[in-house]
Amino acid sequence: MEKAKRARIQDVAEKAGVSTMTVSRVLSKDAKVSDAKTALVMDAVKALNYRPNVAARRLAGNQSFLIGLLYFDLDTSYVSKFLLRGLKSCRATGHHLVADEIDDDIVKSIASVKELIEVTQVDGLVLLPPVCDIPEVLTTLQEAAIPFVRIAPDSRLNLSPYICMDDYQAGFDITELLIKQGHKKIGHIIGNPNQGASRLRYQGYLDALRSNQINVPPEYIEQGLFTYDSGLEVAKKMLALNDKPTAIFAANDEMAAAVISAAHMNQLNIPEQLSVAGFDDGHLATTVTPHLTTIRQPIQEMAALAIELIASKKFADTAKANSRAYRHVLDFEIVERASTAVKGA
Fold it and tell me: Is 112 exposed, middle or buried (0-12, 13-18, 19+ CB in 10 A)?
């Protein structure tokens, strides 16, 4: 059987009725190309299943068409969801994604970042939390003049473009949901202290309680690390109290799942005896039993926007010049499921 020929840029140009230069400009996200011509080209790309030859494009210009992703693997669900959408978005823009993990050995990690830059010549990098706030990483990228987008940073907000959601408001709103369901004894498991989102979600929780004149004892608040194990350890402590909370809001779904496990260990029925709420709405939220009430964080939208920004030549030029910073705040949503209910219902 004869192997189907791979579509060429000339084939796309012919089908779209435009020049190969126009196709190239559309694929390079040139804003000067009209919307009508862009639509024709992208329709032809889809119809022909055209995939740009990255090697040829690298030779033709000063772009590598490679985008880097730096992450610290504390929350596997979050990283995995971001990575998968990032890969999909890169394919759509004719780029490839290169991921590298940062760990507690900062000297080794910085050496790895420098090697990534030197070997791949990436066009830009996406920094997930808490990497987005590590001074050594930021300094390394600045010295290398590599543009980067940060996800939910907590410091130096004018340093680079960044994408986030309103973690404070989300923490406030989901706590208020529990209050409206009749709960006054509401516990909270704080996320990793190295991430600004943890502090913002915690502050939202506190302010929701205060605005409703509700006081909670200090033993209702525990420090977690955004991991299942840390959530399980502190949930056991909280549920061993003589005066237990009737609801617990955990700062991510991993720890919320651990609360559900701890409740099962203590023969507590959810949500009749304990309501549990999480944060993220990853795959885990509908894997646990009962399904988890949680904040739907726009992880996929964040990933898509981050790739889109770096793939834009305008962004790269602006970021390298460090002339201005972009701030993108995306919407969140509360998803109510069976892990929470009106108290006493």
Answer: middle
